[in-house]
Design brief:
Blueprint (H helix, E strand, L loop, with lengths): L3 E5 L5 H5 L6 E5 L13 E5 H9 L5 E10 L6 E4 L14 E4 L5 H12 L8 E4 L21 E3 L6 H6 L5 E3 L14 E3 L4 H12 L4 E8 L5 H22 L9 H12 L8 H17 L9 H4 L12
Parallel strand pairs: 1-2, 1-3, 6-7, 6-9, 7-8
Antiparallel strand pairs: 3-11, 4-11, 5-9, 5-10
């Protein structure tokens, strides 16, 4: 398969990158490639939000497959100061909230957590900016029209600095700032028990939110290639799961964590394919519409022209 794909360092993609599952050339990157502007990759990992909004605008240069490379709950992605009084999403009504990008897929899901608790976009003051000094000062509004209560931080001020200075009440971030897990950390998650909140969310909605997915430039993708890629990524994921249960020592409690996860989600918490992800995809588009990032949902056959599932599921 003469394709060159660029993805981040996901464990479930490593078997493809190393050639343990023969397939396309896979380069592991520190950031997602710009599939609309960069010619060096035939495809790779891209933002779910950006892809949906591009398709809605009639831009079909990039075609996604229902292979969600990045998924995750977002309750744990809301952080506050250690001494903050707020402990629930509802407590953020009227709050000053920082976030790392307005149209980002992850932050769209996080705002949905607040919306479910009755905190809409008009119910907070929002500032968009870099999380720490290690992150660049760039346009994080993504060129979308926003209300007067949404703006960049002044002079590119860092969100963690504003939080500690009590100029923000909470910050939405996909990755925790340095020192977050230290015993004397000045931060904590908004929810005291984020796992319990996320488990309840899964019970209500039945999915783990999808954030990034695999997409290819239109000229590089054919019907037979689409199914081949689906099956290869599924094989890589299965091999990753098998190795994870034997050879990884991410934490001393790894086996226990795998057991808990399996009891809640079954053998595969990140299913690929249109059938498994139909509900999640519809919910995400509903949120894009509710948050005024999309006029109306993109029909499923336009969003995923190749309506495919893995030929072999995880047993």
């Amino acid at each position: 398969m003469k394709l060159h794909l660029g993805v981040r360092h996901w464990d479930h993609v490593i078997p493809l990158a190393l050639g343990d599952v023969p397939g396309p050339t896979v380069s592991r990157l520190e950031a997602t490639p710009d599939l609309w502007g960069s010619p060096e990759y035939d495809g790779g990992e891209t933002s779910f939000s950006r892809y949906v909004r591009a398709r809605a605008a009639g831009d079909d240069r990039v075609v996604a497959l229902p292979i969600f490379l990045m998924r995750g709950f977002r309750h744990r992605c809301i952080i506050v100061r250690r001494d903050a009084a707020a402990e629930t999403a509802a407590d953020l009504k009227g709050a000053r909230i920082g976030l790392t990008g307005w149209p980002d897929s992850g932050n769209t899901w996080t705002r949905a957590v607040l919306a479910e608790a009755g905190v809409g976009i008009d119910d907070a003051d929002w500032q968009v900016g870099p999380l720490t000094a290690a992150h660049p000062v760039v346009d994080r509004l993504g060129g979308v029209a926003v209300g007067n209560n949404i703006r960049h931080t002044t002079d590119g001020a860092r969100l963690v600095d504003l939080l500690l200075a009590k100029e923000l009440d909470a910050v939405m971030t996909p990755f925790m700032p340095p020192g977050f897990h230290a015993a004397d950390s000045p931060y904590r998650t908004l929810f005291r028990d984020a796992r319990a909140e996320e488990r309840a969310y899964y019970g209500r909605h039945g999915f783990v939110p999808g954030i990034h997915l695999l997409a290819l430039r239109k000229e590089a993708l054919r019907p037979e290639t689409a199914q081949q890629l689906m099956d290869l990524f599924e094989q890589a994921k299965q091999l990753s799961f098998q190795r994870r249960n034997k050879l990884l020592d991410i934490t001393p409690w790894h086996n226990e964590e795998v057991g808990i996860t399996t009891k809640v989600f079954g053998p595969d918490w990140m299913p690929y394919g249109v059938s498994a992800d139909r509900r999640m995809v519809a919910a995400f588009q509903d949120q894009l519409v509710a948050q005024e990032l999309l006029d109306r949902p993109v029909p499923a056959e336009d969003l995923f022209p190749y309506q495919i599932d893995p030929l072999e599921k995880i047993a």
